[in-house]
Design brief:
The structure is a homodimer.
Chain A (H helix, E strand, L loop, with lengths): L9 E4 L4 H14 L4 E7 L6 H13 L2 E6 L2 H5 L29 H16 L3 E3 L15 H15 L4 E3 L7 H10 L3 H4 L17 H13 L4 H4 L2
Parallel strand pairs in A: 1-2, 1-4, 2-3, 4-5
Chain lengths: 228, 228
């Protein structure tokens, strides 16, 4: 169960979006196809298409994709990404200063589960696409938070886990350039970004606008918009 | 949703066992009946009676009890507490040096969810019954781990959450004495400890033996053994 391995392997937290897909190709470049696995969380997200996107991207990249269920967020309720009764707003919530898509501690949970799964698989490198540059007010995406969590995970699991965040200090433009340089663009046609779950994407939600801005600034055509 | 409150309130992670019940009474003593809520996790534990015990103990104590589902551990599988295919062993697993009831990072997950729920409820004190004295090899129960997690939670949720661990440095004997002094003994009749899920308890599993030792050393009769 606690497979100790001499071969360096990495587990990528793959959401099916642009950033985690870029991270998957970053990991492939560093650890090779046989050194990479991916994990996706089914936490009751409204845009279920994300899960199929993650599976497709993993297949294109030639890595395994394990989907783990999380029913707890839906039970906690109250946020726009999982609760059908809450509308997605482009503005922040006045009372918290955070976008209303915020699930408190969501990334802490994702990374802790990913670390537990990695522990079982004898993997000691985690890769996640969080970025504080365009972090939209999510405090659990900041480098300081990730570093503190890494300390807690190492102590709590007595493991040598390392959390890699290759996009942490990149702008969206730089992330697009990295994806291009890593050969990730073909897989980008199968990613999902739109907060409204539309395909082709709505083009007007904050996530679509941020993605379009990054591709435009990098001077790269978004393969998703050319997809059938 | 992010209710900010001037009144100090505490959320107790209540498993239905001896330690968390003692913590519940510790919190009642400190914050009063109206200042305490409890949360219990249904993570597919084999001894389902724990959930009923937690609800009963909360009722006796006069506090609310929210049960939150966690299906992810069962999906991760492979441990004796959730996987019916794994036998509970009293010995440690030779390959890991940990008891085979170990779910990697289990307490990190519990406390992160509890912190998310507390955030929603405007509560900034968490109380958990983890102890490193008799910690049975669980690295996620140690003070160092809890402190690191508290840092990650504060940064990741931008909250002032404090994790209280009143039993951290107490022996089982001292925990029984604390329970007695706090008036928690009547509720102890409704707690659950046995790893084999038996009621009356089996008396031979490691959890039963540890509990019996604590009561014996404190010179207190265990109300559970006198229960009908």
């Amino acid at each position: 169960m606690n497979g100790k391995s001499d071969i360096e392997k990495a587990l990528v937290v793959l959401s099916g979006g642009q950033d985690s897909t870029t991270c998957l190709y970053w990991a492939l470049d560093r650890y090779g196809t046989h050194g990479v696995e991916s994990v996706t969380f089914d936490y009751g997200q409204r845009h279920r298409t994300e899960l199929a996107c993650a599976a497709t991207v993993a297949k294109i990249a030639g890595v395994t994709n394990r989907c783990l269920p999380i029913d707890t967020f839906a039970a906690l309720g109250g946020d726009a990404l999982t609760d059908p009764e809450v509308e997605v707003a482009s503005d922040v919530d006045d009372s918290t200063g955070l976008p209303n898509t915020f699930v408190p501690g969501r990334n802490l949970i994702f990374l802790t589960y990913a670390a537990a799964y990695a522990y079982q698989r004898g993997i000691r490198h985690l890769v996640t696409g969080v970025a504080q540059t365009d972090y939209s007010g999510y405090p659990d995406c900041r480098e300081e938070t990730i570093n503190a969590l890494q300390t807690a995970l190492r102590l709590g699991m007595e493991s040598e886990i390392t959390i890699h965040t290759p996009l942490m200090h990149l702008s969206k433009k730089e992330t697009v350039e990295l994806a291009r340089d890593l050969g990730a663009l073909p897989a980008m046609a199968f990613t999902h970004t739109c907060y409204n779950g539309q395909r082709p994407p709505c083009g007007t939600c904050p996530a679509c606008l941020l993605r379009a801005k990054g591709f435009a600034e990098a001077g790269v055509a978004d393969p998703l918009l050319a997809a059938p």
